Amino acid sequence: MKPGNLNLQRLWGPGLALVILALLVTFPLYASAYGIILVTDILMFVILALSWALFSAPTGYISLAPAAFFGVGIYTSAILGRQLSLPLVVFLGGLISFCLALLVGALTLRLRGIYFAMFTFGLVELIKHFWLWYEIRFTGTRGRFVVVVDQKTIYLIMFTIFVLLLLTTYLIRRSRLGLALRSIGECEEAAAHIGVNVNALKTVTFALSAIFMGAAGSVIATRWTYVDPYIAFNPLYSFMAVLMAIFGGIGNPYGPILGAVIFAYLEEILLTRFPYYYMLIFGTVLIVTVLYLPEGLIGLIMKIRKRLAGGQDALA
Amino acid sequence: MPLLEGKGVTRYFGGLAAVQNVDFHVDQGEIVGLIGPNGAGKTTLFNLISGALVPQSGEIRFKGEKITGLKPHVICKKGIARTFQLVRIFPNMSVLENVLMGVLFGKSDGHGMGPALEEAEKWLDFVGLSAVKGLPARSLTLANQKRLEVARALATGPELLLLDELMAGLNPTEVAQAMELVSRIWEQGITVFMVEHVMKAIMGVCNRIMVLHHGEKIAEGTPQEIATSRTVIEVYLGE
Prior knowledge:
The complex is a heterodimer of chains A (316) and B (239).
Chain A: H1 3-30, H2 33-59, H3 66-80, H4 86-108, H5 113-139, E1 144-145, H6 151-174, H7 176-193, H8 198-224, E2 226-227, H9 229-232, H10 236-248, H11 254-273, H12 278-292, H13 296-309
Antiparallel strand pairs in A: 1-2
Helix pairs in contact in A: 1-6, 2-6, 2-7, 2-8, 2-10, 2-11, 3-4, 3-5, 3-8, 3-10, 4-8, 6-7, 6-8, 10-11, 10-13, 11-13
Chain B: E1 4-13, E2 16-26, E3 31-35, H1 42-50, E4 57-62, E5 65-66, H2 72-78, E6 80-82, H3 95-105, H4 113-127, H5 142-155, E7 160-164, H6 172-187, E8 191-195, H7 199-205, E9 208-213, E10 216-221, H8 223-228, H9 230-237
Helix pairs in contact in B: 3-4, 3-5, 4-5
């Protein structure tokens, strides 16, 4: 490979990312109200998918807990939204999710494979029903109204969370922590025997990923105006995060982003244009992905790029 | 004071005593062999030393310090490294990254990325895998995967290296190379404690041999003593 070629290829990715980020920052200046709402939604799903991948992609621990942390964020907003400013509420939503994930992680990350997935799924249901009981028993009503905030503020906060998540993902992947997380996914026992504190690392990373889920929940709650435990702790958000990430491909952080953007947009289109076929088309796309694109969209793109680059990379 | 010392080490799996009341010691600078028929408890003993399992009774000391009950990553940082009977490499990481993991995480003191890479390359060179450092570890032959595991263990800077059936599944040429590797590891000042079924190998490189049978230590001595011991012959060949 020629050095010039290499440099261009290296600049291409970050360059494109910068252009997209610049477009997103200035988006509220020229976009329609609908556009802002749509992109906020897409960003929310991107955050869920990417923060899920932050922990689950390298370690191979399939967490179905995103909805739990997302819901905790939503309720942080519902309870504290009137007294505190939104950025503070979002920060607290992330912090409370972090603490909950730390506790849950410390208790359950000994579980492997399907048992961990089942537990995290159970966690969402547990919190939902506990909270339902609490609300009815102590506040007397099932739901709560959330303070309303203007759409541009919601958008900008969601965007900020996204940028922070992107930065976190990048830093972890670049550091020795990223390597250690991958080694857990590859062979946890060997990782432990060469000095990796696997339990601590898993727990902290799991909790770190929960911050972003909780923060996203805190912002989006202000747009929903009314929440109850069924809305806030909807396991669908866990599944969506996992499916979007796998659809996009989890070998690379661009995968979950791409998957979430396409999925969230597709959902919007299908729901508005083909409400009756929405789930059917959705399911078909998923099955095709799992059967024919085991490495997701990003895997497909890499394969095409490699083929276009021709034989020169074959030996590299 | 021995480098590694175990007293009354016992571990049951259900009602079965995998390791029962075993006393052992490994001195600094030795190559000690651990042999015994299948199911004798050899790997279990290694698991107890490396922290993968905790003994139900008895205690293990390393450099005089009690290590029973410590987690594997702590024991590794104290200076005990191991390989596994069935190779446990990181298959999708490159050969270099596998060894780099050992340098970065296996020591109690921190390491910058630059020096860490250099050290990883040094160990790859030591086991003779420099030429394939960029390949994913899964693409290596079994013999090379075993070498990689040794390099990764050495990269953690151990004083004691536990080798669990390094030679199993290797052809005669590879066995000879592995024996030579064990000697070179020992020349680095690293004490070796090895489980082995290949008798030629164990008789050739060990100073001392321990024999386990049904979880109990039945004999211990120099290779000549073990080779001529009536008990050992009875265990292996029947009465």
